[in-house]
């Protein structure tokens, strides 16, 4: 049975953000982004972390990566960088969560996808408030197939099941699905050109906006026109 948090209002969170190496990042955007793909991947991750760090309930963000070219920019925006054990996405999340518990054993721990360039702190705060009511919980992505956030309360085993149809996987493991209206920026992950277009429509962070402007000038995204 899911335990209700006694004082969700005062709960602080450590968020773990897994970031791929640039060689593997955003490959489905390669055709649209062209030579800007790596810059876009860094920009999206940094905008995600920067927004998370100014969310009221977030005490710290731990970025897990094996790529020094990503680690530097993430550290500059304020993330604590943790080495990726290179055992897959969920292994990276568990490594970051272990470090989070070492740093602040009394805080809740959440996994947040690194590709949320439109992330709004107020919307993320609403998700964290809702997550504070359950031992483990998650938020589905915009397609309602994957997961953009998974969280556990202090003392609860951190068992993320990201990858593929992770919404069904998290449900099957007993995690409570967070169902909130008005949090599109927390659900809008970016894997494809259509996803990027949707994120741009919501309004992305400054780093992503700058790189997207260069991509749009090249005329690569659907519906875009080449700058004359």
From TrEMBL:
<keyword id="KW-0547">Nucleotide-binding</keyword>
<keyword id="KW-0548">Nucleotidyltransferase</keyword>
<comment type="function">
    <text>Guanylyltransferase that catalyzes the activation of phosphoenolpyruvate (PEP) as enolpyruvoyl-2-diphospho-5'-guanosine, via the condensation of PEP with GTP. It is involved in the biosynthesis of coenzyme F420, a hydride carrier cofactor.</text>
</comment>
<feature type="binding site">
    <location>
        <position position="163"/>
    </location>
    <ligand>
        <name>phosphoenolpyruvate</name>
    </ligand>
</feature>
<keyword id="KW-0808">Transferase</keyword>
<keyword id="KW-0342">GTP-binding</keyword>
<dbReference type="InterPro" id="IPR002835">
    <property type="entry name" value="CofC"/>
</dbReference>
<comment type="similarity">
    <text>Belongs to the CofC family.</text>
</comment>
<dbReference type="InterPro" id="IPR029044">
    <property type="entry name" value="Nucleotide-diphossugar_trans"/>
</dbReference>
<protein>
    <recommendedName>
        <fullName>Phosphoenolpyruvate guanylyltransferase</fullName>
        <ecNumber>2.7.7.105</ecNumber>
    </recommendedName>
</protein>
<feature type="binding site">
    <location>
        <position position="166"/>
    </location>
    <ligand>
        <name>phosphoenolpyruvate</name>
    </ligand>
</feature>
<dbReference type="GO" id="GO:0043814">
    <property type="term" value="F:phospholactate guanylyltransferase activity"/>
</dbReference>
<dbReference type="Pfam" id="PF01983">
    <property type="entry name" value="CofC"/>
</dbReference>
<dbReference type="GO" id="GO:0005525">
    <property type="term" value="F:GTP binding"/>
</dbReference>
<comment type="pathway">
    <text>Cofactor biosynthesis; coenzyme F420 biosynthesis.</text>
</comment>
<feature type="binding site">
    <location>
        <position position="147"/>
    </location>
    <ligand>
        <name>phosphoenolpyruvate</name>
    </ligand>
</feature>
<dbReference type="GO" id="GO:0052645">
    <property type="term" value="P:F420-0 metabolic process"/>
</dbReference>
